[in-house]
Design a protein that fits this description.
The chain has 371 residues and is mostly helical. 35% of the residues are buried. It is globular and about 70 Å long. The protein is 61% helix and 0% strand. It starts with 10 loop residues before the first helix and ends with a helix.
Length: 371
């Protein structure tokens, strides 16, 4: 979610600050949205001091891991290409991730946003235990892997395995299955293909046209083999669909939150408030707290439920200190139902429409303050 700024900053102004090392990537992102430029500077700070935020490491781990797995698959696909197969052994062991680190502008906003979402979910899933005064919420069993309906139990097992792939600790660059939605998967493939094609051409052992043709063929083959239904978010959505009307039981939603099964919780909540699961997760992880509170209101949550939700989000949201959580929980009941309805109604609108409304609001606010 874009942060509201009272006045836009130019790229030149950003490059002059110590906190944002934008200068090293300005040449590659001069036409990119400002938020994406800031993200690239934050995740790839060049010679600036390394940021200690765990979200940065976790996002880089997912991004590097999925790119590493994609590079391995691309190399295997190119073994069948006579024009480049003999050259593969002459290439470095890792090409793509070092190229991304050197040229962060290769990353799209959509791909980086998805990796940030995966990282936030991973951090929340790793949490253990429950808040002492929320034990009543955890009383209901949520082990759907033993459900009597085999379709439900199999889907629940698949979700557990998918979550395990996201949360298994690993070093940056350790291969991770790229179980992305279709749009982001295609983005991932082309992102990996570009530096790989360049590396082949730089060997001087194949003309660039043949390298380009071979890499494109291999990339399209990988795209044709992708099944986005095997992704963790897609599996969570499928599990909710299989449950049908049982997914609307308040106790199920409460138990999912209390047991910190965040993908299942997000899929259940998205069904109730009529948002897509990825969009709802994005709001929970990166949206203004007033939007998080509005969603909790529409879910029928209390101030205590809202506090538990914020505690669960805490590892993934740097600004959620204990003091902030307590203050937000105290303000929760003061939000009128009509305000919550209006906020969520806006969130259901197309992204481009929301961006336009936000721009109008900012411009109007700036004009009013200037007057």
């Amino acid at each position: 979610m874009l942060a509201v700024m009272s006045a836009p900053l130019s790229f030149t102004a950003m490059a002059d600050t110590d906190d944002w090392p934008v200068a090293s990537i300005m040449a590659g992102v001069s036409t990119a949205p400002l938020r994406h430029a800031l993200d690239l500077a934050r995740f790839f700070p060049g010679h600036a001091p390394a940021l200690s935020d765990i979200m940065l490491f976790e996002t880089r781990r997912h991004l590097a891991g999925c790119l590493a797995a994609t590079e391995i698959a691309l190399r295997q696909a190119l073994v069948a290409a006579p024009s480049v197969a003999p050259i593969l052994t002459a290439l470095p062991d890792a090409i793509v991730w070092p190229a991304i680190q050197a040229h962060p502008a290769l990353l799209s906003s959509s791909l980086l946003s998805h990796m940030r979402l995966r990282a936030g979910v991973s951090l929340m899933l790793r949490q253990q235990g429950h808040a002492a005064d929320e034990e009543d919420l955890a009383a209901d069993s949520l082990d759907l892997t033993t459900a009597s309906d085999p379709a439900i139990s199999e889907c629940a097992v698949a979700l557990t395995l998918a979550e395990g792939r996201w949360t298994t600790p690993g070093a940056e660059g350790a291969p991770m299955r790229p179980d992305l939605p279709a749009e982001q998967f295609v983005d991932l493939i082309w992102t990996a293909a570009a530096p790989f094609c360049a590396a082949l051409a730089r060997t001087g052992m194949v003309v660039q046209e043949r390298a380009l043709a071979a890499v494109e063929t291999g990339a399209r083959m990988l795209m044709s083999q992708q099944d986005e239904s095997n992704g963790a978010i897609a599996i969570a959505d499928r599990l909710v669909r299989l449950l049908g009307q049982r997914a609307d039981a308040p106790a199920l939603l409460a138990a999912a939150l209390a047991q910190r099964q965040m993908l299942f919780f997000a899929a259940l909540a998205a069904r109730r408030v009529r948002l897509d699961t990825s969009g709802l997760l994005g709001i929970l992880l990166d949206g203004p707290l007033v939007e998080v509170a509005a969603i909790c209101h529409l879910l029928g949550g209390s101030a205590s439920d809202y506090r538990l939700l914020l505690l669960t989000l805490q590892p993934a949201r740097a600004g959620l200190s204990d003091a902030v959580i307590l203050a937000e929980a105290e303000r929760f009941d003061a939000m009128p139902g009509a305000q919550a309805d209006a906020i969520v109604a806006t969130l259901r609108a197309p992204k481009a429409l929301r961006a336009g409304l936000a721009l109008i609001d900012r411009t109007s606010a700036a004009g009013a303050s200037a007057g």
